[in-house]
Task: structure prediction
Amino acid sequence: MRVQVGIIGGGPAGLLLSQILHRGGVDNVVLEARSRAYVLARIRAGVLEWGSVEVLRGAGVGERMDREGHVHDSIGIAWSGRELFLIDTNQYAGRPMMAYGQTNITEDLYAARDAMGGVVIDEAEDVRPQDIDGERPYLTYRKGGELRRVDCDFIAGCDGFHGVSRGCIPGSVLHSVEKVYPFGWLGVLSETPPLDEIIYARHARGFALASQRNPMLSRYYIQCPLDTKIEDWPDDKFWAELKARFPPEIAKRIVTGPSIEKSIAPLRSFVAEPMRHGRLFLAGDAAHIVPPTGAKGLNLAISDVFYLSRALIEHYKGKGRYLESYSDMALRRVWSAARFSWWLTMLLHRFPDQTEFDERARESELDYLSRSEHAKRSLCEQYAGLPFEN
Ligand code: FAS
Ligand code: PHB
Result:
């Protein structure tokens, strides 16, 4: 097979890149290690920046999102049992957010790929980028025991944190930085009516978050120790702990019910630089991971794809400037989101080794945030997502 762009990974980054390139006249193929059913069974992100909404609409996959998604104007922050305060991102940043699950986005992208005759090869084993330093890179992989090859001009590594592509950049070139947090998030999905707003809670017992996927699908999280085992958290124990971390007037509004999904995600901040080496470009979790506190992971994957697809489409039109600037441009946004996600994680979680001073300083910062228009504006423009660079 020969294509202009070979894409490793059929998650949101890989599928969205494939869709935008195809619509832009750049032929491509996606090689995904898992089955479609496995990819679609993953429950992950749920909040989209408005810039992400516009990229998805522009890629022709906005119709169901606009029909089933929930536009949010504000996020709520409750702390130490104090009165909840709402921060209106529309008022302070001039744009809302959209609650629409990553699972739905992946379903919509697979459907769009099928409708356009896009080529997504799943259960592709042992995918390997080859000759990324040369003029004629290619991919090898196995399917049904047979070794296969894809010749291409460029390779996009959209294969997530545990993928193969980042490791193909020579150790003398690749530089990564990481911060691992001493806790994780225990998440539950339940077919119950959610709260109206997305509410973050900081409490002596630990962080909690109330979110949603649709009017009958709620998503909740509680901070948990890294050695937490799912089997130690039956539903009734989860609901009791979640409610204990919200102020009473919010806790009594939480509708409980059987969990249909329960999982634990560790929290880390990770950035690999550069996001390009030779003919290989990284996008999404393959290059960076942020703690989900700032709802940035999926949005960063979408912004990387916006920049990379624009660069590749312009290249084939004979205007190559965006390819040269891709890594630096993407990393400016990655570091902005990584810092914001780190800041909100440090502010809202309890740390095993925190001192009384740490506690009082965080309380004071939340107090300042609840009173200052400038502080709210700063939080909102970052939470709602900064504009893309031209
Ligand atoms: P993905 O990991 O989604 O996709 C990579 C794809 O590549 C996968 O399908 C994988 O099977 C495939 N692959 C891997 N290795 C391969 C190989 N060698 N060959 C071929 N294919 C290969 N973000 C938020 O904003 N909010 C959240 O609440 C949130 N919660 C999360 C919870 C969990 C448990 C995790 C792990 C992540 C969460 N994230 C969240 C972040 C998440 O949404 C990612 O940002 C998003 O999935 C990034 O998409 P991709 O870059 O496409 O990577
Ligand atoms: C979610 O809806 O899954 C969600 C919302 C906000 C976050 C993280 C996750 O910060």
Observations:
- The radius of gyration is 21 Å.
